[in-house]
Design brief:
This protein is an alpha/beta fold. Helix content is 29%, strand content 18%. Helix 5 crosses helix 9 and helix 6 runs parallel beside helix 7. 34% of the residues are buried.
Length: 453
């Protein structure tokens, strides 16, 4: 049997075929048009919504590369400053009406974090800055290693940019800032002067007889920077030379604030702190009467302890700020731990480590823990009282400083200590900081606190 094959080549089949082709062509055209419109809208949406601002992209890295540092030196200073101590910017969630509902982000702790490598290094050197005191000029004095220069503080949940001298000076135009306290305050002022000198060198307009208290002027910004040396913050008779050698016990008047209070009305911003001097032998006076002492065997006086005097003094300091009619921002700096090992400064102690500690690798000694506890308790009491004039903030540098045993002058507090004898026994400084050094990061933090005060 022969099968018959059906042929579709007739007129009707050709007409049907043409209809199919037309429909197919029209479908392809419509699909292509739809895809093009969809892609166009998608690209437009991405260009508007998904591209982050340049400044936000930079903020993703806690350690800014050199190119970002140059860009951040712009003279531009926004009218409304962003709070760098926030975990994130205020988040806006669009609702059904297309409006934004903003939810304030939580503030994070600038003082909890770690020291991270920073290959860009410090913004100044001991050669570019001429105000570094000899005791802190470690490189000039012959320190052989430089690894301690390449770390910076990185808070756990915050983006902390490096200090921007142009922005800082612009913010401080026609204002005044004072550091009040011990030699650590002077150490920090030197760091600040070195950083600011990249934009404008300061002119020293005053110093006391011992060059411990000074005033500088940044003339083009009418900005005044002061350091007031008052290691106890209260009136004290001190019989000690520049090398720490004492000829008699300190007479400490724990209920009488020092003369810095007379100058307080001249300052817009204050950074104040002390601590270590209270560990020295001292006779305590209250109401013009000797009431006791700290470490004064053979004097037939009541041993009250350094903690008694420190608490009493801080109570007087905070009472002064909260009762003052002068409007100012006050940053209270907590005590600075030292890193002497195998002895103290007077008994052969040294600090020869070359890298920072990680969290948990070191703990505070008892006296520092006691001192810090007093500071936090008295600060909280003062802050809880509130004041319409003083803006009281805690500059808690204790724990982040505890992690930097590598940043001290050590034996290089004096020029070339081993030039004549490589095995010479020299006094070490394991309390103050090399410049440049870790204390530069304190000023990174201060800038953020003041800008957001």
């Amino acid at each position: 049997m022969v099968k018959r094959v059906r042929s579709d080549s007739g007129p009707l089949s050709l007409q049907k075929h043409n209809h199919v082709c037309v429909k197919l062509a029209l479908s392809i055209f419509l699909v292509g048009l739809a895809v093009r419109l969809l892609l166009w809208d998608s690209f437009s949406f991405l260009s508007v919504v998904e591209s982050p601002p340049v400044e936000d992209a930079k903020a993703e890295s806690p350690v800014l590369p050199s190119s970002d540092l140059q860009a951040s030196d712009s003279d531009d200073f926004p009218e409304t400053r962003q709070n760098q101590t926030q975990i994130s910017k205020d988040a806006c969630n669009a609702n059904g009406n297309g409006h934004c509902k903003c939810v304030a982000a939580e503030k994070c702790d600038l003082f909890v974090g770690e020291w991270v490598p920073d290959q860009s290094g410090p913004v100044y050197t001991n050669e570019s800055c001429r105000v570094i005191e000899p005791h802190q000029n470690c490189m000039k004095n012959g320190r052989p290693d430089s690894g301690y220069l390449y770390w910076r503080w990185s808070p756990r949940d915050c983006k902390l940019p490096k200090f921007n001298p142009k922005k800082f000076l612009k913010f401080m135009r026609n204002k005044s800032l004072a550091f009040i306290g011990d030699s650590i305050s002077r150490n920090q002022v030197q760091s600040l002067l070195c950083i600011l000198s990249k934009v404008e060198p300061a002119v020293e307009i005053y110093h006391d007889k011992e060059y411990r208290s000074k005033i500088w002027k940044f003339r083009s910004h009418n900005f005044t920077l002061s350091v007031i040396w008052t290691p106890f913050l209260v009136k004290a008779a001190i019989f000690e030379d520049m090398n720490g050698v004492t000829s008699s016990e300190i007479q400490l008047y724990v209920d009488t604030l020092d003369k810095w209070t007379n100058q307080y009305k001249n300052f817009d911003y204050v950074v104040i702190g002390g601590g270590k001097w209270f560990l020295k032998t001292a006779i305590y006076h209250e109401n013009n009467t000797v009431t006791g002492c700290h470490y004064c065997p053979g004097k037939n006086l009541t041993e009250l302890g350094f903690d008694y005097a420190y608490r009493k003094v801080l109570q007087e300091v905070f009472k002064f700020f909260t009762n003052s009619k002068h409007k100012a921002t006050v940053l209270f700096r907590t005590t600075t731990p030292d890193h002497f090992e195998n002895g103290e400064w007077f008994s052969g102690g040294y600090c020869n480590r070359t890298v920072p500690f990680k969290e948990g690798q070191i703990h505070m000694i008892d006296v520092d823990s006691i001192m810090r506890g007093i500071e936090l308790e008295e600060f909280e009491k003062a802050a809880s009282l509130g004041s319409q004039r003083v803006n009281l903030q805690l500059l808690d540098t204790t724990l982040l400083s505890l992690l930097r045993p590598d940043g001290h002058p050590g034996p290089y507090r004096k020029f070339q200590p081993f030039a004549k004898d490589k095995n010479a026994k020299v006094q070490n400084d394991c309390l103050h900081w090399c410049l440049p050094g870790p204390i530069d990061s304190w000023n990174d933090i201060i800038m953020q606190m003041l800008l957001n005060a």
